[in-house]
Amino acid sequence: WSEVNRCGQNGDFARALKSVNKILQISKDDVTALQCKVVCLIQNGNFKEALSVINTHTKVLTSDVIAFEKAYCEYRLNRIENALKTIQSASQQTDKLKELYGQVLYRLERYDDCLAAYRDLIRNSQDEYEEERKTNLSAVVAAQSTWEKVMPEDLGLREATYELCYNSACALIGQGKLNEAMKKLHKAEAFLFLALIFLQDVTEEDIEAELAIIHGQMAYIMQLQGRTEDALQLYNQIIKLKPTDVGLLAVIANNIITINKDQNVFDSKKKVKLTNAEGVEHKLSKKQLQAIEFNKALLAMYTNQADQCRKLSASLQSQSPEHLLPVLIQAAQLCREKQHAKAVGLLQDFADQHPANAAEIKLTMAQLKIAQGSVTKACMILRSIEELQHKPGMVSALVTMYSHEEDIDSAIEVFTQAIQWYQQFQASETRGANPKSSVHLSLIREAANFKLKHGRKKEAISDLEELWKQNPKDVHTLAQLISAYSLVDPEKAKILSKHLPSSDTMSLKVDVDALENSHGATYVRKKAGKLIGDNQQKEQGQGDVKKKKKKKKGKLPKNYDPKVTPDPERWLPMRERSYYRGRKKGKKKDQVGKGTQGSTTAGSSELDASKTASSPPTSPRPGSAAAVSAASNVIPPRHQKPAGAPATKKKQQQKKKKGAKGGW
């Protein structure tokens, strides 16, 4: 026992455990020894083994004796519900159990009960752990602000540590006060940096790793502010540090995926692996885990993994049947597959099963119908949303869509129903007094304008009369009413025109100089000034002779003869002139041989014996000398050269010389 005591004081629980085991070999049901063994196992991180020892010796280790140790083991093994039952079943609620009870409630996201538990602890205890309790209390307030959108009350906590500053910043983010939250985070960063820099053996990388959670929250604020490039850069810097907190890595990876959206899909698929790390589900809240699963389903849709997208969205829908996003993701996937009718049917089924969320689903259905070109069906869906059908925005959308379809009667019906609804609602609210609200009057005016535009003058007149009754001093409404009556009943228009104010009462005191010098009149004033200046210059310069610019004389050709009349057709191309007869063919060109090889043109007449007076016979007689001599003087055709060949060759050489001058 002295060995156990000495090792326990020194913190050497592994050695103390060996001594305890020796004691238990002698007395296996020793309560103190079993308690010491459980504590040693907990201190060494062997929670499963410690819980096994407790459950094995239930007769000896009753709930009164070992309640805290059992609940703590269950808490550390993420068996939160079991830990809560163990704490509640304990006969005596010690301070240790109350501390653990607060932690268990926080993990179960029962923030109201958790807040009450920590307030009670802070009020009824005074020890060295007061700062930690205040930190936990501020964390509960931050969680309420972030996840339940509860306006946090001022607890009067002095922000003397980086944890308190950080939790305060998280609460401000939940309220949407991003700039104030960023200032708190910078303050927390300074606190933590000063606390770490004076420690021994702490490297710059260690400091950056500790600051990672603060920098991650800073990047999140940047993302909310629309500074996505800065946020992405900071997120990637944190991932490069490889922090050990799997919860932090999962949140950062998820936020990067939301920035990438349908772009940079390869990077998003790599980041998804960080969200699947072991133990993530115990580090994050339910809403964080749900958001990550939604983004996985959307990423599967963007990467055309239809089956994976359906599987994830179906799983999400089974976990949260009333949540909108799973069914919207399924509908989006069906639309990508061009199955619009099936998508609308899916949304309709969800709207029928969950009437509380029907409005948003029906708006999506209407959007799908508009995308298909079925505007009338979209209008029918929109008019079926009872809580929205009388809103000004919905009325405007319906009227615009019906006008596009040229269904004026339906558009007027929408106006009429909305006006009647406001009239009944205000009558019930004011117990029959029925004063017209600004929305009601604006709807009546818009209805009148719409009817006038589409030629429904009689219907418009009744609306305008209603408006004029509500405000007889409204000159604009009276003018519209007179204009409408002038087209239907001119006599009535004349009677109403008497109610118009006289020109004297309508005259406005206008400062002309101020009006001319105003911003809107600058262009007109400049233009007028310019015109006046031009007129003045013209008046001043009437007697002056304008200087003419000297024209340069054109150059005449070298062979110009003033006595000879110039050719009137000299400006026309040569081919278009009346005296053009075409190009003359050269004599030498005519003599160039053409045709098949061996044929001649120039000497053909000379060689043709039939054209001469004393031509020899085609087959000369043997022994005829004249015939032989004549035949011997004839040059065979193959050896004959064209007459114009030498001259042509010479001319070509001259041309080549002339053309080659620039090439050298």
Main attributes of the structure:
single chain, 664 residues, mainly alpha, Serine Threonine Protein Phosphatase 5, Tetratricopeptide repeat, 36 helices, disordered C terminus
Descriptive overview:
The model is unreliable at 524-532, 601-607 and 609-664 (pLDDT under 50). The chain contains 36 helices and no strands. It starts with a helix and ends in a 5-residue tail after the last helix. The chain is mostly helical and 664 residues long. It has a domain at 128-244: Serine Threonine Protein Phosphatase 5, Tetratricopeptide repeat. It has helices spanning 2-10, 13-26, 31-43, 47-56, 63-76, 80-89, 95-107, 111-124, 130-147, 162-175, 178-197, 204-210, 212-224, 228-241, 246-260, 265-275, 280-283, 286-302, 306-319, 324-336, 340-353, 358-372, 375-383, 392-404, 408-429, 438-453, 457-470, 475-488, 490-497, 503-506, 512-516, 522-540, 587-590, 604-607, 625-632, 645-659. The longest helix is centred in the middle third of the chain and has 22 residues, at 408-429. 66% of the residues lie in helices and 0% in strands.
Structural class: mainly alpha
Oligomer: single chain
DSSP strand content: under 5%
- Describe the biggest sheet? none
Uncertain residue segments: 524-532, 601-607, 609-664
User: Would you identify the CATH architecture of the domain at 128-244?
Assistant: Alpha Horseshoe
Overall geometry comes to extended
Q: Provide the gyration radius in Å.
A: 51 Å
**Strand elements, count:** 0
CA distance, first residue to last residue: 116 Å
Q: Kindly report the average pLDDT value.
A: 79
- CATH class of the domain at 128-244 reads Mainly Alpha
Query: Helix segment count?
Result: 36
Q: Helix content range of the residues, please?
A: 55-70%
Query: CATH topology of the domain at 128-244, which one?
Result: Serine Threonine Protein Phosphatase 5, Tetratricopeptide repeat
Family: Belongs to the SRP72 family.
Pfam family, one: SRP72
Biased composition (Low complexity): 610-632
Protein name: Signal recognition particle subunit SRP72
